Amino acid sequence: MRAARLHAVRLGPRSLAALALVSAVGVVAFGWPFLAPPASQLNAHAQDAPWLFAGLLVLLVAVVAATISESDLGPKAVAMLGVLAATGAALRPIGAGTAGIEPMFFLMVLSGRVLGPGFGFTLGSVTMFASALLTGGVGPWLPFQMLSMGWFTMGAGLLPGAVRLRGRAELLLLAAYGSLASLAYGTVMNLAGWPFLGAAASNISFDAHAAIPANLARFAAYCLATSLGWDLGRALCTVVLTLFLGPAVLRALRRATRRAAFETAVTFEAREPSPGGRGTSLSDSTTVKHPT
């Protein structure tokens, strides 16, 4: 029988509540053009919305902080979070401007799969923040990117068969999720910018006075005209990297997770003094020698 799945970050009650709150606010922040009726006062302040919703950044940082503090994140998990976030941030600019080639997405999928949804949400948010600092991409869009990437990576941790599903079936599952999530990420991020096109593209821009079906048609036209090619490239890149590099990366992540033993509590047990000096035995049978 396989061992139970290890979680580098467990989502406790406070973290779940904070995550649910941020996700609810995020849904409103992304979807307000289809939630607010044409006569709503929110539409009257459409150009101010990105700055108002940029306050999500504070909530996102609070969610990450609550997740880390409640889970009693140890130095090993912090080190793994730092390494994976730095790697993802370094991978993101590699394909910048090249038809959606963004290798970081496949790493986020595999990391979320192995390390669980709590670690996945934290990793996705931190990676996007680090990438923005690295590339100078800090702006009102950053909270939307952090939340979207957090959802993206957390979703990989929620996929079924985390303990028993292995081999080709798991790779196909991860590749399918990665392709769909890559397309979904692009579509959701389109929602963050589409309402603020103004009259420059009247046929595809958001119309505050139009009905929801009309705006849905405009949004679909906007996605087809501006981002579909990029999103398809991202999805294809994620699928190819998952299928070809996935086995090696999954093995490396699972080996590192087993060795880190995130959920193993370290305890100290007294032992009889040995002739060569005093010793203290750890719960994992490691003995630390102290000089006499």
Automatic annotation (TrEMBL):
It comes from Streptomyces broussonetiae. It comes from the Bacteria. This is ECF transporter S component. Gene3D superfamilies: 1.10.1760.20. InterPro entries: ECF_substrate-spec_UCP037395. The chain crosses the membrane at residues 16-37, 49-68, 74-94, 114-135, 141-159, 171-197, 232-250. The keyword Membrane applies. The keyword Membrane applies. Keywords: Membrane, Transmembrane, Transmembrane helix. Residues 280-292 have a biased composition (Polar residues). Residues 271-292 are annotated as: Disordered.
